[in-house]
Design a protein that fits this description.
single chain, about 260 residues, alpha/beta, 7-stranded mixed β-sheet, 9 helices, 14 strands, about 30% helix, MBL fold metallo-hydrolase, 3'-tRNA processing endoribonuclease activity
Length: about 260
């Protein structure tokens, strides 16, 4: 079984039905959590998966992509029998930032959660050179690419057996995201804006829906999943992405969506 499950897909606007960024990748017994924004731990616990993850990958350290990694650490640690540490990958330039967060959320009087992130997870740098391959499980590998964003950000390319799933992260149009997405079976890509002036796109490192579709078509992906929506013009954004991506099939991300891969 190889599949992608959308746990959350919005950009910074979590609510009861649309938590922020978070995805599950499953392949032959290996389960990887990609991003852990606000609301994702609730999605995991509702599925009984909080202790059944083999690795976590954070594309970058903006709150809508990573804030629930702290509750996930506490959830894993504050149980009668805590599960083993699992790898947690972040862009190589962000390891020190995550360590500072670990200091900030620490409970120094309780050894179990004195440094919750480094106790629950084996924090590892994700090299974004488009060449270094990380093995996450049997038949599951990860390659990081340098995305274009306001903070260090990684476009991701997962090999799942003979299938490929790619994630844009938050990014502008750049060689890194194109490399990650090239010929992917499934490409999850942000569409933050319906319209935006070039300076805004360059300064913040995001895509319009039209650019998202064009990127998927240029990369030759088999299916585009449009994500990171702001919640204001979702229908228009999806329509713009679908028109620009044609003939690539396009699906709108929604919490609970399951996409078979292959």
């Amino acid at each position: 079984m190889t599949r992608l499950t959308v746990l959350g897909f919005r950009a910074g606007r979590p609510d009861a039905v649309s938590p922020c960024s978070g995805y599950l990748l499953e392949h032959d017994g290996t389960t990887v959590l990609v991003d852990c924004g606000p609301g994702i731990v609730g999605q995991l616990t509702a599925r009984g998966l909080e202790h059944r993850i083999d690795a976590v990958v954070l594309t970058h350290l903006h709150q809508d992509h990573m804030f629930d990694v702290v509750p996930l650490a506490f959830t894993r640690l504050l149980t009668p029998t805590p599960p083993p540490r699992i790898p947690l990958y972040v862009p190589e330039d962000s390891v020190a930032t995550l360590a500072r967060l670990d200091d900030w959320v620490a409970v120094p009087t309780d050894p179990a959660v004195g440094r919750p992130l480094s106790t629950a997870f084996d924090v590892r740098p994700l090299v974004r050179d488009g060449a270094t391959v990380v093995r996450l499980g049997d038949g599951v590998t990860l390659t990081g690419f340098r995305a274009k964003h306001a903070v260090p950000s990684a476009s991701l390319r997962f090999a799942l057996g003979d299938r490929t799933v790619a994630f844009s992260s938050d990014t502008g149009w750049c060689d890194g995201v194109l490399g990650a997405a090239r010929d992917a079976d499934v490409f999850v890509c942000e569409a933050t804006y319906l319209t935006a002036d070039p300076a805004m796109l360059a300064d913040h490192g995001h895509l319009t829906a039209e650019l998202t579709g064009s990127l998927a078509r240029t990369a030759g992906v088999d299916r585009l999943v449009v994500s990171h929506l702001l919640g204001y013009d979702d229908e228009k954004s999806f329509a713009a992405a679908a028109e620009s991506a044609a003939p690539v099939p396009v699906t709108a991300a929604s919490a609970g969506l399951v996409v078979p891969v292959g």
